[in-house]
Amino acid sequence: MNHRQSPPSARCRSCGHEPRAWATDKLTGLLDRWGWDAEAGRALAAARRRDEPAALVLLDLDHFKRVNDTLGHPAGDRVLRAVASVLRQVTEADPAGAGAVLGRYGGHGGDEFLAFLPGGDLAAAAGLAGALRTEVRALQVPARTVRGPRTITDLTVSIGLAEHGPGTRTRLADLVLAADACLLAAKRAGRDRVRGPEATLRRLAWDERGLPA
C-alpha cells in the first residue's frame, strides 16, 4: 500500500475543490494552516460518517526561538524543513499514517506541525509520535549560520495527542484544542516528551444537534 501523501493540489482536485495558492506552506511543502484546516476537516467529517476513529498529533520544536536568535533565521528555516521531512518520512513508513493530512501551523517562523490520522486511535498516534521524537533527536542539520557553517544537533520536540472516538461529533477545533493542552503539559513536564489525554474527548463531544453532550 502506498502511504505517500498526495500533493495538496491533487487532493483538492480529487474532492472537487480547486487548488488554492495558500494551501501549501512554501518553506516546507506541507499544507499551511488554512489548507490543513480544510483538508483535515473533510477527513474528520468522513471519519464521522463512517463511524471510524481518528487521531491528531501536534508537535512543537523545543527552544526553536533560540536557533533563530543565535544562528539566524536561514538556519532556523533549514531546521523547519528537516523536521517537515521527518514528519513525512515517519508517516509514510507507519501504517497509521496512511492518508495522513500533514501541515505546518503558525505562518512565518511557526514551529508547530500537525498530522491528522484518519482511522487512527490514540495508541497508533502515540506510536507514531514516539518515532517522530526519536527521529528528530537524531537529526543533524547542516546550515550556514551567522557564526559560520554549523551542523545543528540536539533538536527535540514536545508532542500532544488527541483522539476522535467513533460515535461522537468531535469538531476539528476541539481536537486541536485538546492536542494543544497535551502539548502544553509536555512542555511543563520538561519538554522532549509525548503527552496524551488522560480521558477521552467526551467532554468536548457534540451530539447531532450541535449541543454539548
TrEMBL record:
Domain of life: Bacteria
PROSITE patterns associated with the record: GGDEF
GO biological process: cell adhesion involved in single-species biofilm formation; negative regulation of bacterial-type flagellum-dependent cell motility
CDD domains recorded: GGDEF
GO cellular component: plasma membrane
GO molecular function: diguanylate cyclase activity
Residues in GGDEF domain copies: 52-199
Matching InterPro entries: Diguanylate_Cyclase (IPR050469), GGDEF_dom (IPR000160), Nucleotide_cyclase (IPR029787), Rev_trsase/Diguanyl_cyclase (IPR043128)
Gene3D superfamilies for this protein: 3.30.70.270
Protein name: Diguanylate cyclase (GGDEF)-like protein
